[in-house]
Specification:
Layout lengths: L1 H21 L2 E12 L5 E13 L3 E7 L5 E17 L3 E12 L4 E11 L2 E7 L7 E5 L2 E5 L1
Antiparallel strand pairs: 1-2, 1-8, 1-9, 2-3, 3-4, 4-5, 5-6, 6-7, 7-8
């Protein structure tokens, strides 16, 4: 009985820690954007700074090209599944979002953020462009209040 209570306590404590981490605003930064085809093969890569920030309901994306040109997008998070065993080292977040550009164009994306062995990668896929999966190797992440 004592073993069951200890196991239950550890499970609840771990779940609470994971949930608390999932409720925070997060900022992810990448220096490279990789474009993959439908089979996951690299088509081309671009050296550009991409910042992705999100909370439980909203997402903001800023892309700065080498020439200084900047593109900003904002969106709504339609669903958020968050499961991190070790915050932003081991685990995964799955977001279904609608992202809009400044010119009013919008598109639905499935965004997967995955951590394995301390390395974080973000993938973004749109049904409208199945042959262009975006991959961002994350250089920096930060939890915000």
């Amino acid at each position: 009985m004592k073993t069951i209570l200890i196991a239950l306590f550890l499970l609840v404590a771990g779940s609470t820690m994971s949930l608390a981490q999932c409720d925070k605003k997060v900022s992810l930064v990448s220096a490279k954007t990789e474009h993959l085809d439908a089979s996951g093969q690299l088509k081309h890569a671009e050296d550009e700074k991409t910042t992705v920030e999100f909370n439980k309901t909203d997402i903001w994306v800023s892309v700065t090209k080498d020439n200084g040109e900047e593109e900003k997008m904002t969106g709504k998070i339609n669903s958020n599944i968050c499961n991190w065993q070790t915050p932003f080292k081991t685990g995964k977040t799955l977001l279904n979002i609608t992202l809009s550009r400044d010119d009013g164009q919008s598109r639905d994306y499935t965004v997967t953020i995955e951590g394995k062995e301390g390395k974080i990668t973000l993938w973004a896929e749109s049904k409208e462009e199945p042959d262009d999966k975006i991959q961002l190797p994350i250089d920096k992440f930060e939890e915000k209040n």
